[in-house]
Amino acid sequence: MGTNTSRRVFAPVLPEVERVGKAVLDAAFKVHTALGPGLLESVYETCTAFELTQKGFCAPTQVALPVTYQGIKMDAGLRPDMIVEECVIVEFKSVETMHPIFEAQLITYLKLSGIRLGFLINFNVLHLKDGIKRIVV
Description:
This protein is α+β, with helices and mostly antiparallel strands. The chain has one domain: Trna Endonuclease, Chain: A, domain 1. Helices cover 36% and strands 19% of the residues. The strands form two sheets. It has a four-stranded mixed beta sheet with strand order 3-4-5-6, with helices on both faces. Strands 1-2 form a two-stranded antiparallel ribbon. β4, α3 (100-113) and β5 form a beta-alpha-beta unit. α1 (15-35) packs across α2 (41-54). The model has no long low-confidence stretch (mean pLDDT 95).
């Protein structure tokens, strides 16, 4: 039997990036505890950005992510939900079912931006831990 060689091994995420990632999750848990499931994605995005900003983090939302095509950077309408401290991308969801395309979208954002760590967070769950997907590229 052969070994699974399809999994890539990545260098560890830098401690500073891990610290930012922990802050993102702490903020998301705080928001979910206060508001619960069932609201619009935009509510969770806004409140999580507020929590992070209150803690001193730069957490802009809906910032244009350019695509480089034939050597030219273009604004093609890509807008990650949040980029925290220019080192963590967060995509917010509030859906019944998570679809593989959501993860693919986050992976694309990570690759285009050069950022390695991202979180896909679905707030439409009873326990937020069940709605978090961490992705490292």
